[in-house]
Amino acid sequence: MSAPEIEVDPSPAQLPVPINADGIDNQTFSLQQDVSISYHDDSGYQTSTLSLNSLINQMDLHHEIFRLLLNEKLHLAPLDAPRKVLDIGTGTGIWAIDFADSYPSAEVIGTDISPIQPVYVPPNLKFEVDDAEADWVYASDYFDFIHSRNIAQCISDWEKLMGQIYRCTKPGGYVELSELGCVAFSDDETMAEDNAYKKCCELLNKTMETINRPWPVAGTLKARLEKAGFVDVHEVRFKQPVGPWPKDKRLKQVGAMVMLTSETGIEAYALAAFTRYLTLSVEEATKVIEDAAKALKKKHSHMYTDFYVAYGRKPQ
Ligand SMILES: C[S@@+](CC[C@H](N)C(=O)[O-])C[C@H]1O[C@@H](n2cnc3c(N)ncnc32)[C@H](O)[C@@H]1O
């Protein structure tokens, strides 16, 4: 379960060039220069290289982060030629598109309450508008593989959802749940107790607890699967670096992209949460968020958050 410590890049000169604009000192990272990543276009079939500045889609950027974290894997469950596959809360459908491409003999369904998926997709994939919390119409023992990623804050009744997932999984089939954690860690004490990014994560956790949609911690996903009846359950913890501080090239890229998504994502996500569910004014919430955005760029804070992947098998 415990992931090894990430080796730190000892040479700040190799890190992205710092900027001095808007009072940010040269002890901080910047992503203003081009950092290229492989990115799907709308058709889902091709990849092209875009600069990070062109990437407006947080979900697709997250997909790249998770793909890198999992060493290019789309899942950890030991699948054997799955035929019927379901992706719950598919979002832009990018995972489902990649999965359908990788398993052309599988019939993949991606469901979401929002119809934001592309039209041109692999022929073995279809998207449906569906509320995962409503009663499922799928037949029992139907799917070889059911997948969900980053839907923790969308679900109010996990027990009901897991019951439906279990019913619709074929005996011998697999379910995989993957979710981000929302706790900032550092293994080398480079993150101060009062680090503003850490504090912002804590406040976000507190906020989601008040509406009974807490972020998963270690063991949450495993417990959900076991409680539902799945067996051979495994949970893997990935350390997701915040900022390009790791030495390893792959993790450095992950860290750079996490910094970018956090920069653009905290405000969109946390501002609404803090003002809606806590009693923070817009000014107070904005201050927490701005401080967090500055803190997550600190070169010498080797922070990371967790990404959990858990899978289990329905017994025969
Ligand atoms: C953070 S996004 C994750 C998207 C995708 N799974 C991924 O990892 O790229 C969460 C998605 O869940 C969808 N969602 C929220 N509530 C839902 C529900 N009750 N049933 C199905 N989808 C839901 C949202 O519309 C959103 O697209």
From TrEMBL:
Protein name: Similar to Demethylmenaquinone methyltransferase acc. no. Q72HI4
PANTHER family reported in the protein's UniProt record: ABC TRANSMEMBRANE TYPE-1 DOMAIN-CONTAINING PROTEIN-RELATED, METHYLTRANSFERASE
SUPFAM superfamilies in the record: S-adenosyl-L-methionine-dependent methyltransferases
Biological process (GO), any one: methylation
Regions that span the bilayer: none
Keyword field: Methyltransferase, Transferase
An MF annotation (GO) of this entry: methyltransferase activity
UniProt keyword annotation of Nucleotide-binding present: no
Organism in which the protein naturally occurs: Pyronema omphalodes (strain CBS 100304) (Pyronema confluens)
Coiled-coil ranges (or none): none
InterPro entries: SAM-dependent_MTases_sf
